[in-house]
From TrEMBL:
This is 5'-nucleotidase SurE. NCBIfam families: PRK00346.1-4, surE. SUPFAM superfamilies: SurE-like. Keywords: Cytoplasm, Hydrolase, Metal-binding, Nucleotide-binding. A divalent metal cation binds at D8, D9, S43, N96. Transmembrane segments: none annotated. It catalyses: a ribonucleoside 5'-phosphate + H2O = a ribonucleoside + phosphate. GO terms for molecular function: 3'-nucleotidase activity; 5'-nucleotidase activity; exopolyphosphatase activity; metal ion binding; nucleotide binding.
Length: 269
């Protein structure tokens, strides 16, 4: 198996090494693992691409490159340039430092990398490691993802992919904020919603007396609805969420068509 890895935490991020360990376990001795990741942190850039500025590619070693762009840029660079002769069989985006559940999915550069791979019809999975009081002080924050990641990805690879669809499936895997030996198991989950939203603004005052404002991640995963990714990871489960890039509200198309037809009829009456 030929696997491409990217992330949004940057080429030096410890979570990228965790993803490489997972990929090596999956690829086997005859496989290949390619790492093409942003040269600096790109958290929160979602599916951003560098449409109005040029990029540079910095080779760092065999099958390892840094790109001064977003995760989606890295996937485009990989598929159209570095690996153009033979595309990967799988794209892993992560392992992100921090969960990507609920509203995070909309903002996440990790998910953005998986979206770009999916648009190119390459099976793609976003991987994120939650952190909190139970695992933040571990020597390896990503121990849970390293331990459970290969099996979780193998299970997902056995699921439907809709590879030929215009907007096929991709999967979002979140590892809970606990040590690996305390993971409850793995379960399917829908994308949740936190009652208080995803972010808030925190004010700080600089030595010169000027105020600056930072975005701070809100809390409340445990308050999300039962069966959601946010609630599941808060309770110690690995969650797997199938996602699509198609943003069309298909359940409302008939209503929109009826409303537009009615409006047209009234104008011609």
């Amino acid at each position: 198996m030929r696997i491409l890895i990217t992330n949004d935490d940057g080429i030096t991020a410890p979570g990228l090494r965790a993803a490489e360990d997972i990929a090596l376990a999956l690829a086997g001795p005859k496989g290949e693992v390619w790492t093409i990741a942003p040269e600096s942190e790109q958290s929160g850039v979602a599916h951003c691409i560098s449409y109005t500025k040029p990029m540079r590619i910095n080779p760092l070693g065999p099958r390892r490159f840094a790109v001064d762009g977003s995760p989606a840029d890295c996937v485009i660079v990989a598929l159209s340039h570095i690996m153009a002769d033979r595309p990967p069989d799988l794209i892993l985006s992560g392992v992100n430092r921090g969960h990507n559940v609920a509203e995070d999915v909309v903002y996440s550069g990790t998910v953005g990398g998986a979206i770009e791979g999916t648009l190119a019809r390459v099976p793609s999975i976003a991987l994120s490691q939650g952190y909190g009081p139970d695992n933040l002080e571990l020597d390896d924050l990503f121990e849970g993802a390293r331990r459970a990641g290969p099996d979780a990805v193998r299970r997902v690879l056995a699921m439907p992919w809709e590879a030929k669809a215009d907007y096929g499936l991709f999967y979002n895997i979140n590892f809970p904020p606990v040590p690996g030996d305390r993971i409850q198991g793995i379960r399917a989950a829908n994308q949740g919603r936190r009652p208080g939203g995803a972010f808030k603004v925190t004010e700080t005052v600089a030595p010169n007396g000027r105020s600056y404002f930072w975005l701070a991640h809100a809390k409340g995963n445990e308050l999300a609805a039962e069966g959601t990714d946010a609630r599941g990871t808060a309770e110690g489960w690995i969650t797997v969420t199938p996602l699509r890039c198609d943003l069309t509200a298909h359940d409302r198309l008939a209503d929109v068509e009826a409303a537009l037809s009615g409006a047209a009829a009234r104008r011609t009456a």
